[in-house]
Predict the 3D structure of the following.
Amino acid sequence: MTNRGPSSRLVRSVFLMFLVVPTLWAVGRWTEPPIGVDAVSAVTPGHVSVVGARMLPETFDAAAADSLVRRAMYFSGGVHKPFDGDTRWVLIRAAHDVAPAARASHLLILEATLLAIRNAAAEADLALLVGKLDGGDDTWHTQIAQQLQGPRLASIGVELLLVSEEETEAIDVPDSGMAADFYDLPIALLECDAVINIAHAGTPLAALKNLSGLARPTSQTTDADAVLVDQALLAEVSYTLSHLQVPGGEQMILASRDGVAIDRVAAQVTGAASDSASLAALHLAHTRFLGQSDLADIKVRGADVPGTWVAPRKDDPEENETE
């Protein structure tokens, strides 16, 4: 692997989801384990962004994929905006587990995304990070490699990196002062300037779990998917979610630069999309520093409820300083 020096860029996490119709932002109900600030985003020096579509047109070809990706990037706040003259290496994370019937569409979205990123970061090297620490689907990896050699992508020279073959490093993930843990992460994630995570085509919220298989606690080397998120950053937000009264609902925290996206995602996940009282509670979450993109702006306090994310008191200058 080419030796690229670590970036000094501030760590930021950006989770963006785009719906073609009928609204700009919409996602489906999450039925998997809790969502959180993932360990990969927490330590990657640069941006972690997601490009995905909730719905696809009935007729989906390369032109439709190009249009969808352009609009997704624009309405998400512009994934292209983080790129600047200092961007030298961009990693693109393709979905590691796509059903055979959906692979053709996903490959078109992958192709369109690579072309858009090339236009936005013309001087940067691009690399696709595929598979998981424990391997993955070789057939799917072969299909991706063939797509890279197609007429639209061959001239770009995108590098293909298999996670299982990448060197890893044990990293102490930022824990906001609660509990530390070391994670094995591919060194490429630590040296790149940006990570663009491509969602499963047509699968709600799939992008938020697409980093699965990239990180694992050093103490759990036998199960690459045991931990997707840094559990220290998953302190229960009981105070906020208790307002939503979701039967058996999982406690969660979402991180994004886009507060509107956070409200929409959280509303749909908790089934509160049409409940004005619940939406008010989601806005309360924003006032308590939930949904901040910069981890330095999220504070851990337990004055109200143990494990609750609490905003600093206005009358305490020291508490108002970012950590």
